[in-house]
Design brief:
heterotetramer, A alpha+beta (79), C alpha+beta (579), D alpha/beta (225), A: 79 residues, alpha+beta, Mth169, Chain: A, 3-stranded antiparallel sheet, 37% strand, C: alpha+beta, 6-stranded mixed sheet, 19 helices, 33% helix, binds adenosine-5'-diphosphate, PurS-like_sf (chains A, B), purine biosynthesis (chains A, B), Phosphoribosylformylglycinamidine synthase subunit PurS (chains A, B), EC 6.3.5.3 (chains A, B), ATP binding (chains A, B)
Chain lengths: 79, 79, 579, 225
Amino acid sequence: MRARVHITLKSGVLDPQGEAIRHALGALGFDGVERVRQGKVIELELADADPEAARARVREMCEKLLANTVIENYQIEIL
Amino acid sequence: MRARVHITLKSGVLDPQGEAIRHALGALGFDGVERVRQGKVIELELADADPEAARARVREMCEKLLANTVIENYQIEIL
Amino acid sequence: MSASAATPQEPTVTQALAADHGLKPDEYQRILDLLGRTPTFTELGIFSAMWNEHCSYKSSKKWLRTLPTEGPQVICGPGENAGVVDIGDGQAVVFKMESHNHPSYIEPYQGAATGVGGILRDVFTMGARPIAAMNALSFGAPDHPKTAHLVRGVVEGIGGYGNCFGVPNIGGEVRFHRSYNGNCLVNAFAAGLAQADRIFYSAASGVGMPVVYLGAKTGRDGVGGATMASAEFDDSIEEKRPTVQVGDPFTEKRLLEACLELMASGAVISIQDMGAAGLTCSAVEMGDKGDLGVRLDLEKVPCREEGMTAYEMMLSESQERMLMVLRPEKEAEARAIFEKWDLDFAVVGETIAEDRFLVMLNGEVKADLPLKALSGEAPEYDRPWVPTPPAAPLGEVPQMDPAEALTRLMGGPNGCSRRWVWEQYDHMVLADTVVRPGSDAGVVRVHGTRKGLAFAADVTPRYCVADPVEGGRQAVAEAFRNLCATGARPLAATDNLNFGNPEKPEIMGQLVGCIEGIGEACRALDMPIVSGNVSLYNETDGQAILPTPTIGAVGLLEDVARAIRMAPAAGDALVLIGE
Amino acid sequence: MKSAVIVFPGSNCDRDMAVALERATGRRPAMVWHKDAALPPGLDLVALPGGFSFGDYLRCGAIAARSPIMRAVADFAARGGHVLGVCNGFQVLIEAGLLPGALMRNAGLKFVCLDVALNVVTADSPFTRGYEAGARIVIPVAHHDGCYVAPPETLARLRDEDRIAFAYAPGDNPNGSAEDIAGILSANRRTLGMMPHPERANDPLLGGTDGAALFEGLAGALMDA
Ligand SMILES: Nc1ncnc2c1ncn2[C@@H]1O[C@H](COP(=O)(O)OP(=O)(O)O)[C@@H](O)[C@H]1O
């Protein structure tokens, strides 16, 4: 079973990397790029068989390690 | 219009981050995590109105800046 | 005895396939004569790795032999992973410089990063803890469309690797010239500190000794990369891209700590880092130097990817790996050290008495070659060369207000401050940096002593192109002066010779001239060359780079508290010394 | 004073920290491996050194913060023990929840290694008692992820409780940290995390000694204790 975790900065948290990308895109002549946010995706290959159990486990992984919930949100997809 | 770009390492390219995460999950007692790959998501807010034109532009952004096509693949979603 | 026929999925070896591996028709013929049969695919790969310019130095060897390499201070000159020089009190400095030019042009961050990783491994393979690094960089014209991207990527890659590993990067060079537009140069230097009587070499000894694989797992990284490093660039460069490797400085740092613990445990008979064509070159070198054969059982090699073939494993350039010959009675202790650092440790073969390089995969013979011939019979060329004609006298030199000329020079890309570069490098980690970047040479204290070591990297390619002999001399003299200017006594040097295509007599003439000048100056100044690296075929579409023989020099300060910095106080007298 | 330095795989200022502590206290600190579950008995101070623990992969300090030894460090801190985290050590303390906020990629996105001027904001802590409040000192930084961020209420609390130990001097903020924050204290003032490296400014030969007062002050405080 595969799971995909999207980790994004909470809105309101400054994202210098996203800002830098926006700026660089502008310099390359791509206009109309109004906002850029950069996040992480973590793809996990799991031994679990049951999708609901897998989701619960991945949630725990996010809380314990994968995301810093002070500044980040996460979203889990079971594939 | 919003676009989301997923950037992942090409298969076969070493992913030290993913490996470190896998290891750390194991140390925290999450077993059965067979493989971890870490990638990036970039979310763009675009002024474009036409989804197909937007997709073409984002593809160009990926080729020119967002992805390091030597070692990374990318995938575009128009939301 | 003979190698098994190629398995169905392996391509049949032909002269054309050999040519794809960078082997010239006469070189392929040499292989056929040596073996008395057609090589297997794996064997062809092994030959291509061993006989390319990068490993065999086939164009430069003849000339490198003319360099002075000895002196009372020299413990080990060229031929090992790095040079070793005595610094008194039972201590030694171990250093070398190496290029990672082609990979850095293809993928600047990872190319430069893995270049730093490679040179650090060369140093700690010999039992030395790295204490300083430098980098000498040459880029194309500042306004060339690729330059900014390359500069940013290379500097970040060097910083990314070295900062994480934890070695202070205390000096170097950055230059811009259009001849590097399609072929930047990334020369990385590293130096380490060891006990003079605890240096580790690559020569294996003893029959039936376990050959052990250490470090990170093997993937398909850079398969064919060693061949790439010696091939001239052309428009097919895009297709060569996937041969890039990704560096993992965190693994390298653990490998350093594990190797130093291992060496202290007395378990190591010989050790060799896996660089280009890792498993091939390292195994052959250990056998060759020790007059032994080597047998490898590839199914025991820790792999990152599934279904890797013998060919791929033998040519993989995966980083952060080492090969070691182990004292068998120490196996458990050695394995425990690697487990502590969460690194792979696998016995993958053994030393054998015959002169034979036997590579097996699941009981099947994949390569069975005379081992000594792989390096001993490697082609060596006396390539035709022509001396560089004297440069035409300079035309009218424009007259200019000196103050304005000075501002122009200092504001130009080749004269301006390099702070933007070195601020991205941790130049203070280890808390022994006495003279930081921005002076003539960087100086670090020898930890726990009053001694200091000074490091400088220099060359002026426009002198070398005008007059290679003089340019070679000047590079050495400048490095020497930069050391002296800190108060250090120069000890020895390493050279990184970057040139174009040696098959062109005028390029060969530059190489010959520069080596002559370097040799002369080193002899005159008593500063032997103890290690080095040659990078040829630095050309794009037939345009060669300026001849760039970078000199990395090392000096000793008996009392580091007396190191001289470039920080004069108001009221100090200004004195001009020399002619 | 008895101290320990925690060694994570990828720590690279562990020796530097040990040298600074030994110089100030005359006693060599214990070096404690991250996989250990317990600290040596009788400690007065635990130091988390700089470096790239676990390669700084995922997030700086994140994996180290979940090491077995960190549970013992948290217990030690909860019992009133003194904890110092420098650079990567600060990142670990934050990830372990022993200090509030987060440390993000530098605003300039680049690694920065240079001397910066700091203001000592409070002298009221065992770490800063060797300085005058308001003193201007120079200490090097070397990091890629030192931009301190926290919700407004947290920043307000840090200010109100006088828990900002060091702030970058105006114009000298190398990473975009909120309110120029360079180092903060825990509520009981016995845990300090800071991005600048005082252990690199502890020897005249290395270009500065402004970090020495931190180690000496600490040694003094813990000796008196
Ligand atoms: N790539 C680099 N990395 C680190 N330091 C560098 C680099 N390039 C130049 N420097 C430093 O900048 C200073 C000026 O460099 P350079 O103009 O080449 O000096 P010099 O002519 O005295 O050798 C030197 O201290 C040098 O070590």
